[in-house]
Structures are given as structure tokens and as C-alpha cells.
Amino acid sequence: MEETLVVQHVRKTIGKKEIIKGLSFSLKKGEVFGFLGPNGAGKTTTIRMLVGLIRPTSGKISICGYDLQKQFTKAIQHIGCIVENPELYPYLSGWENLEHFARMVPGITAHRIQEVVELVGLQNRIHDLVRTYSLGMRQRLGIAQALLGKPTVLILDEPTNGLDPVGIREMRQFIRSLAEKEQLSVLVSSHLLSEIQLMCDRVAIMSKGQIIRIDTVEHLLQEQARTYWSVDPIDTAKQILQNETTLLGEKDGALVTIYESNETIARCNARLIEAGVYVSGIERKLPTLEDLFIELTGGETID
Fold this sequence. Notes:
Layout: E1 3-14, E2 17-28, E3 32-36, H1 43-50, E4 58-63, E5 66-67, H2 72-76, E6 79-83, H3 94-102, H4 110-119, H5 135-147, E7 153-157, H6 165-182, E8 185-189, H7 193-199, E9 202-207, E10 210-216, H8 217-223, E11 226-232, H9 234-244, E12 247-251, E13 254-258, H10 262-274, E14 278-285, H11 289-297
Parallel strand pairs: 3-8, 3-9, 6-7, 7-8
Antiparallel strand pairs: 1-2, 1-4, 4-5, 9-10, 11-13, 11-14, 12-13
Helix pairs in contact: 4-5, 9-10
């Protein structure tokens, strides 16, 4: 799959402190990429480098094949960005806001403005004053602004910030449709891990200036799957499971092992029954992204 944004060995030093320590990752066309990091991980600094607000100390950022440092103008025209709540003029209509921002980008026509209005679903309210918009509508208008220049990569920092549950779900569905229908690469940072889990194809988990894991959400969670054994007597079962598989401990009255193949589980179950252990339940459980995040970062606070 075509790569649209490539980050290679990027470092950032401020004063004598190295904030970003050799980041490398890429975005693919048509995917939603989650960017997670606790406080102080360097997530915001990384986003600022991606959109050209600050320069990396070393390393390379390429957008659609253009070097962000050496070919800044060509590279940055492929990026659209919204950081938290977009800054809009409340005394102007949505359309007038977009006209104002369109003047800053050469070649934006009224037809293109109409296209992005329809894309974000604001056609029924676009001529109303922005001060009458809900927060979700303002977020959509901000994204419309970011889409005016037909970017290839869209960076959204906390796009669901302040939205109610219905607004969060609508924003999630909207972001997924941008990736699938418009084939945009969308990088999303959010502290709502449950939303990242539902929204993203891949995630990068950052800690202390480094990416500690990057993979599909499904694969990350599958790796941490656990098998819960409801057994009696538990001491006999514990000894058998220790011999047959990796026993992780005991939780809520059940023994917990790593999740292995169906053949291994069947063999363990047979050994337990042969030893006279009553097995009342075998359950496979996947962790949430929040569980995984806490395990990988050692319980650091999410940004």
C-alpha cells in the first residue's frame, strides 16, 4: 500500500534535553492511524514537526515523496491539520469562514468550497452564523477548512474533544469515511482510547520520546489475549497448568494463562479432567486498548 507520510529517525533536542529520540513510522493511503502518548511523551512536539511548525534536530520527514525541510512548500501542501477546537469567526457564516480561509490557498474555487461542505455534511447549515453551531458542527467546519487544499494527509489532534457521546460516534464514523471513501491518510491523536480502538487501523504508542509499539489494533490486542480457567480444586489445576502452558496468575477466582492454540487448550483441559479437576468454564478474553496502554507505558498518564 502506498505510503503518504514517512518519518525516519527523527530527533528533537530543546536546550540540552532530547525530547524526541529517533522516531520512525509511516502512514498508508486510506488508513486511520492512532497516535497515543502519555503526558510528556513528545506527541505534541512530534505533531508540530509533522506540520512544519518546528524543525527536527535530525532525521527526515517526507510527505508524498517531498522532504519537509528541503521542499517545504511542495510537502506542506499535501497536509491538512486541525488541532483541538478549530479557530473560527463566530460572527461569519460557515460559508464566509471557508471563503476567508480559501483566499489563503491559491486556486480554491467556490466549487471546491461546495465540495468540502457536502463532504462534511454541513450543506443545510453552511449559511448560518458559526456562533449558532454546535461543537460537533464547528469541528466539521474546521475539518472542511483543512480539506480545502485537497490534502493527502489529514492530522487531527483530539477531534472528539468536548463532544457528547452521539457527537463522538458521528465524528468517528465521519473520520473513517474520509479514509475509506476519499482515500486520505488520517493521523488521529486522542486521549479516548476506546475511540481509538474503534476508529483506527493501526496505532503507535509513544512513551518518553520513543515509539514503543506500532501495529494494527487487532494484532496488538490479540498478542495480549488471555485464557481464564474456572476450576476446582484450584491448587491442583494450578500445578497442571504450570506444566502445560504459561500460568500468569489468578484473577477473580479463575486461573489466567496466555492464550494459545485450540489444541493446547484442549490438551490442558484433558489433563485437568484426568486429574479429577472440575472445569466449569474456559474463556478467552481480549484486553482493551486502555489495558494494553497501561501495561506498555507502566501506568503513565494519558495525554
